[in-house]
């Protein structure tokens, strides 16, 4: 066994994982003058947080608003301030747009789904506007002539998540957050009811190094369960691959447009991103012919003129999914290790509220958001994870 050395014991909070979730938490803690170190095995923000479509869209798939919708809507409402602070600190824009989402029905099944969303959200008092096929065509001339109708959700927004992760990292740096990039965390060391340190395997050294702190946050996205295995805690986060395609020359797409699970989201400069796929293919981030084909077919079904657009690029990312598709938030058995992972399809949307919750837990020991549904302990009936050597 290689020998273990200890370093950097002066930091107060160590965040494992520098995606949008980890960096948003680091920002909020640093704003409260807490010394923070973020460890990432690659470049912060380069995984799911960059791969996403950038929708801040809690209403888009909600039929009957529930507790999870309340959490999502709270995060959506935190976004304008979050973006303003990040942009000011970083001196960069993240291209945040609060101009709504148009959901359209291209067949009877989609029309029924939209009717359910419309009825459920109207009953809940949410802003939702019903549109005939003709009204949809007037608003969006690019739409397929097959369109039967639509609903417009003024409360759904979007931004450029690639710009957001870059700006957020810059903002964190301005506030003194230390990033340890290319540092893979192997696991946590515990003593009694507390975590004492993380063990990292640095690319440039062969021996593991330990970093200690008073608090820890696990925010390693789709890779979280491997790290939690060192705690013998079953944390069933699994990667769900999503492929995306980007086009050039799509000026005139005014906001998010969706048909069922398929969506198009505008980007500055006439770009348009379209997606996605939902595939359980392990940690393979390959862009496949089948994945791209399914996106192109659904794009053509939504707006036939898409076939004239210039193909720009395609990519894939790994959503951190859980058995109930809900995030894992709050404390488990260790009083100084907070979990902030498993955000599945909503991690961009949920970043500000997750950062607020974790910051409140660390600094005040409590949060106003009910966390029982998101407890890391809810999977305990599952087999314990294998201990790593
Ligand atoms: C195609 C696609 C479209 C999406 N669209 C949307 C959308 O429109 N809106 C929305 O809200 N959400 C969307 N999502 C979901 C969203 O991207 C994720 O929920 C969110 O990015 C998760 O953030 P994260 O910080 O937890 O994970 P990540 O961004 O994956 O970050 C995890 C970080 O942990 C690091 N890490 C992993 N293992 C280790 C280790 N052992 N040691 C140190 N560091 C480690 C990784 O390098 C990575 O940087 C989409 C996802 C995909 C794939």
Report on this structure.
With 389 residues, the protein is of the alpha/beta class. The protein folds into 3 domains: 5-51 and 163-237 and 324-379, 3-Layer(bba) Sandwich (FAD/NAD(P)-binding domain); 101-154, no CATH class; 240-321, 2-Layer Sandwich (D-Amino Acid Oxidase, Chain A, domain 2). It has helices spanning 20-31, 48-51, 67-90, 108-123, 133-139, 161-174, 224-228, 289-302, 347-364; strands at 5-7, 13-16, 36-39, 55-56, 101-105, 129-132, 149-153, 157-158, 178-180, 183-191, 194-202, 209-212, 215-218, 238-248, 256-259, 262-267, 271-275, 310-321, 328-331, 337-341. An 8-stranded mixed sheet has the order 6-7-5-15-16-17-14-18, with helices on both faces. A hairpin with a 2-residue loop joins β10 and β11. The chain starts with a strand and ends in a 25-residue tail after the last helix. The relative contact order is 0.19. Residues 1-11 and 384-389 have low confidence and may be disordered. The structure holds flavin-adenine dinucleotide. Flavin-adenine dinucleotide binds at residues 16-22, 39-42, 44, 46-49, 51-55, 184-185, 219-223, 227, 242, 244, 275-276, 317, 319-320, 341, 343-349.
